[in-house]
Amino acid sequence: MNTFNEQVRDIAHLGHVELLTPKPNESAAFFTNILGMQEVAREGQSVFLRGFGNYESYCMKLTESKEPGIGHTAIRTTSPQALERRAAAIDKSGYGIGWSEGDFGHGKSYQFRDPDGHAMELYFETEKYKAPEHLRPILKNQPQKYTGNGVGVRQLDHINYLAQKVEPTSKFLQDHLGMKVSEQIVLDSGEHAGSWLYSGQKSYELVYTVDSTNSRGRLHHLAFLVDTREEILRAADIYIDNDIYIEGGPAKHAIQQTFFLYCYEPGGNRIEVCTGGYFIYAPDAETITWSQAERARGQAWLTPTISTFHTYGTPVVDK
Amino acid sequence: MNTFNEQVRDIAHLGHVELLTPKPNESAAFFTNILGMQEVAREGQSVFLRGFGNYESYCMKLTESKEPGIGHTAIRTTSPQALERRAAAIDKSGYGIGWSEGDFGHGKSYQFRDPDGHAMELYFETEKYKAPEHLRPILKNQPQKYTGNGVGVRQLDHINYLAQKVEPTSKFLQDHLGMKVSEQIVLDSGEHAGSWLYSGQKSYELVYTVDSTNSRGRLHHLAFLVDTREEILRAADIYIDNDIYIEGGPAKHAIQQTFFLYCYEPGGNRIEVCTGGYFIYAPDAETITWSQAERARGQAWLTPTISTFHTYGTPVVDK
Amino acid sequence: MNTFNEQVRDIAHLGHVELLTPKPNESAAFFTNILGMQEVAREGQSVFLRGFGNYESYCMKLTESKEPGIGHTAIRTTSPQALERRAAAIDKSGYGIGWSEGDFGHGKSYQFRDPDGHAMELYFETEKYKAPEHLRPILKNQPQKYTGNGVGVRQLDHINYLAQKVEPTSKFLQDHLGMKVSEQIVLDSGEHAGSWLYSGQKSYELVYTVDSTNSRGRLHHLAFLVDTREEILRAADIYIDNDIYIEGGPAKHAIQQTFFLYCYEPGGNRIEVCTGGYFIYAPDAETITWSQAERARGQAWLTPTISTFHTYGTPVVDK
Amino acid sequence: MNTFNEQVRDIAHLGHVELLTPKPNESAAFFTNILGMQEVAREGQSVFLRGFGNYESYCMKLTESKEPGIGHTAIRTTSPQALERRAAAIDKSGYGIGWSEGDFGHGKSYQFRDPDGHAMELYFETEKYKAPEHLRPILKNQPQKYTGNGVGVRQLDHINYLAQKVEPTSKFLQDHLGMKVSEQIVLDSGEHAGSWLYSGQKSYELVYTVDSTNSRGRLHHLAFLVDTREEILRAADIYIDNDIYIEGGPAKHAIQQTFFLYCYEPGGNRIEVCTGGYFIYAPDAETITWSQAERARGQAWLTPTISTFHTYGTPVVDK
Q1: CATH code matching the domain that covers D11-128+151-310, chosen among 3.40.1490.10, 3.40.109.10, 3.10.180.10, 3.30.70.2190
Q2: Left, alpha or beta for A15 (phi > 0: left; psi -120 to 50: alpha)?
Q3: CA-CA distance, C94 to C114, in Å (whole number)?
Q4: Which of A153, A157, D226, D307 has the highest CB neighbour count under 10 A?
């Protein structure tokens, strides 16, 4: 027992994600009118958006781009010291890019790329959201009014990257950010096909699944949280009556047990709304490994999965 | 068994209600922005509104008035012949007013007042709703797109009148419209304190409860249907963040078992959103009678009821 | 308008169904432990079962048999006179069998077969359920305690037959029972592939869909009602942890908009639990017709359907 | 920013609670048949019980006693080192009792009392649950089958103590266990009336509210988690049909925003089932303070609270 390896938790949570879209107006309309997010600011080719429950000023930077996909992922550390520690560790790894002065809503950040090429940054200083008069909530333990418009997502939940090689990419985040793996898929060949990473009690925030096109740096999907499964079912109704293509769900994942609904936003990126799953309270939780056969069993309720779920990502590549 | 009394059902359903408001703009904003209804037309001092599931063109006529309360209630018959039969029956009763040429969205109607003074009309000819392009639904078995805006009520559900004398008023509808009583409250004194009337499988559409101020012709509340209890819970969140006063609920009624939420719309009328309850399939269902003691037990889950629920109605009177 | 055809409603509702099973013990355990139904009585090779909301004493007679499938369907009329009228009409049609003395829980019945060969009976006299002490409910407008055991189905909802020829079979019920068609599928060839029949405000109780094996008299599925979509999602969890095979759902049908979950009970019959959909209030509702192309679009949310859903029925036949 | 105080998190989570009951058989029947927990073991006068989601072998020890109330609370540390650190800190405080050899299902523990007299212990070594054959789940990321019996609670959620003095008692846990306060009530007099303590991302696990009888060491309630609000509504139905007294809810707390339902178990202890609320992702979250006036506003939806909620606790005392 005395050999238990104590570790300070340096990563607080997934902060925000920059999503790229070739159709900025249509994409912004999707996130505000259909998902019910609030526009916080506009700068250059970007719109900053938030869910009603985000304690920071925003959780998504939507940026016009020739191709859809992921711009960068910003991760908040637990302290200024943690930021310095992790920047030093990544710098040593050779994957570091360097410090930035920060961006709208947050202070200086240390920028790097994961081994698969996804742009990332770490930051600690952040601007906590102060709701303007018309969005001030009645309950003071909620950052913003619940507007009742569209799906009404609470906050950014997780990001699922595609990676050419899952294992070394996941290992990089474990080694240099101190993240842990809650669940993973290991094929009969020994290759890792999926890795779900977490740092606190939320059971995953960053996910890598294998890119069947052998590409690098792509996005599988970005996910937003709602509180109830009924909101997911309601979202499906909202989607069909607004010509939003539903790729999968509502259904329940076997891995992580999340209740999900996948669609494509107008820019082409796959967007999930999700709820449920579980939290990890054990400080010594073991990684759960799904074999190829177990994975082949499908979703929790055996819901058939459309083939594009295993092939489509952004940017789109010729396979 | 051979004495079973066969009866043709002449009343199809509650069609629409005219609600009076001294604050027409604020009330209209409540019904469209908060409840998520659609404005169909405006005529004179009236706005016509609908829920996404109404097969007729509207279910509420909102009319400016010095005082809040109920204008008239329109009830659709099962056939033109039924309309003639019922008009003749009411005419004989002495409570009839006479035929009108109809109103926006429906044909000729026979007007009358119930013994407590509430204005009513019967009609058969009606305009079925044809959604304009932007409200056209994907599913052809639904009259209109689900917009995802605010509470999102499906349709008018029922109306609850206050009456000085419940029993004779309810009896009038039984005798002259052929309605049946699914549940009722009978006090120890023998006085009827509540009567829930129905004509088809829906277990109530018109309700009389006793007016504690001894007034006549008043409204207790108007109720709109949603499909799920989760939508009722969500409505409560929408209400508090939009300064809509919640008078009671979300909770479950003992009588009829409906899951409910009561608020006051800006004009002062009590509005319910409801779901659940049960349908009556037995053609020979017996009236369920609640005694004074049973009624005093409270709502299904013993939820305390605020005293105004038993005293407040519109128009407001000095008690 | 004066040509509107008034019609007395003679059919009250689907009463009960006799389900055949080659595994009587396992099937009974499924209906009581997993679906949460109550056993009311046993007679010969049959067990009589009920949901907590059935006003009659039972809604399913489970009978041991060499093959799974449907025994007979019992339909309650709105009056003794209606029973006589409909018996006479069917007798004239040549599909009649004759009167029976009744069975456990109901009085005399008129027996017949639909043109596809499914055994049916009409009855009016019935035994209303009186809960024994341990099942007595707190709310007097509910026939039985809600036990909280398993899925907890409220009552029988509908039966979906397979038929070699959908149109004439459906037409028979329209002509001789006075039932109406709420929705139907008509293929490009003009052949009817599905017909949803109703008699009151509930939008369907008897359904015919085309038998792809060209067989006659088979069952597609039997459906039980729950009150909420959450209960359907919970049922899926209960199913997987009890090795009950899920064939489809939870998802939302396009036709009728019902939220559904299909499984196979241990005897091999397909069983649905369902909720939602809509009620028909218009006395002059028109039949909604889905074309082949519209049908091919799939379920409401585009959920893929497993192929067995279109081929499997009971008894199983070699195709 | 450099002054940010980094702190190692030593407390992992609330482990289990010993509940005292003068009616051991009736209480055990409540927790197993109504709440749907599993009995894991019996020892002496105690029964050990678990929810389907507990990763440890149990979350409640139910012990026969002359009076209802709380036996002890067991809290798991994040590591063996953390256990030693916290034991040393408490030992120095003068509130320590000393080490025990452990109990069923966990290793050695350090025992102490909070300043209000509630017995507590810290432990690290624990027995992770291995489901027996009949309770083995299909999904390997779940410790146990979901049985579908009764309410079906997932796990212990939190404990709410009554304390004569809230502030110093809460301060003790902050200073010696490193816990943080997410929300609190501070009266106009400056007295603290409630303090919600947390250690990870779950926003509260240990709560102190003021004891209006000026007693010490009492219990306000013990709470169990379910996943959805629909399960809470369903629980209310199960309670009424099983003669379980509902004291409050289903409704939504303003503080913590939890959706709740309170009852009294047969032994007299107040038991909550809860869901919802929010998680704290900010490492620098500030305590939210509710004033006397804000608190007086009531629950989130203004649901009236029965007076016993503010006075009743276990053991019962003469006020």
Answers
A1: 3.10.180.10
A2: alpha
A3: 10
A4: A153
Question: Per the CB < 8 Å rule, is A140 touching D278?
Answer: no
What does the block give as tokens for C1?
A: 């308008």
Look up residue B225 and give its amino acid: L
What tens digit of pLDDT does each residue of C247-295 get? 999 999 999 999 999 999 999 999 999 999 999 999 999 999 999 999 9
Q: Which two tokens stand for residue B80?
A: 């033109």
CB contact under 8 A, C6 and B288: no
Residues of D in contact with A6 (CB under 8 A): 8, 78-79, 81-82
| Residue pLDDT, tens place only, B188-233 | 999 999 999 999 999 999 999 999 999 999 999 999 999 999 999 9
Q: Is B303 on the interface with D (CB under 8 A)?
A: yes
Q: What is the pLDDT of residue B319?
A: 62
Q: pLDDT grade, residue C9 (50/70/90)?
A: very high
Q: How far is D23 from chain A (nearest CA, A)?
A: 32
Interface check for B29 against chain D (CB to CB < 8 A): the answer is no
CA dihedral A139, A141, A142, A146 (to 10 degrees): -20
3-state secondary structure of B40: strand
Which whole-number Å values give the CA distances from B242 to A35, B268, D239, in the listed order?
Answer: 20, 16, 33
Touching check for B237 and chain A: CB below 8 Å? yes
* C-alpha span between A167 and A186 (Å, rounded): 9
The dihedral region occupied by D246, where left means phi > 0, alpha psi between -120 and 50, and beta the remainder, is beta
Q: Is the peptide bond before D250 cis (omega within 30 degrees of 0)?
A: yes
Coil, strand or helix at D242 = coil
Count CB atoms within 10 A of the CB of residue C13.
23
Amino acid at position B120, single letter = M
**Annotation: CATH topology of C11-128+153-310:** 2,3-Dihydroxybiphenyl 1,2-Dioxygenase; domain 1 (3.10.180)
Rounded CA separation A278/A257 (Å):
7
A319 confidence band (pLDDT: 50, 70, 90): low
CA distances from A66 to A25, A40, A70 (A): 14, 23, 12
Residue C125 CB burial class (10 angstroms; 0-12, 13-18, ≥19) = middle
Which residues in chain B have their CB less than 8 angstroms from residue C78's CB? 6, 283
Average pLDDT, chain D: 96
Determine the distance in angstroms separating the CA of C249 from the nearest CA of chain A, rounded to an integer. Answer: 7
What is the C-alpha separation between A143 and A129, in angstroms, rounded?
Answer: 7
Q: Cα B208 vs. chain centroid, distance in angstroms?
A: 10
- Does residue B250 have a cis bond before it (omega within 30 degrees)? yes
Distance of alpha carbon B59 from alpha carbon D140, whole angstroms: 51
Burial of C282 per CB tally in 10 Å (0-12, 13-18, 19+): middle
Looking at domain B11-131+153-310, its CATH class is alpha beta
The CATH classification number of A11-145+153-310 equals 3.10.180.10
Residue spans per domain, chain D: 11-128+151-310
Searching chain B, which residue's CA lies closest to the CA of residue D228? B230
The C-alpha atoms of residue D39 and residue D59 are separated, in whole angstroms, by: 11
What backbone torsions phi and psi does residue C86 show, to the nearest 5 degrees?
Answer: -75, -35
Say whether B300 and D236 touch across the interface (CB within 8 A).
yes
The span from the CA of C101 to the CA of C124, in Å, is 12
Closest by Cα among D251, D256, D131, D235 to D181: D256
DSSP letter at D243? T
Buried b / exposed e along A95-109 (16+ C-beta atoms within 10 A): ebeeeeebbebbbbb
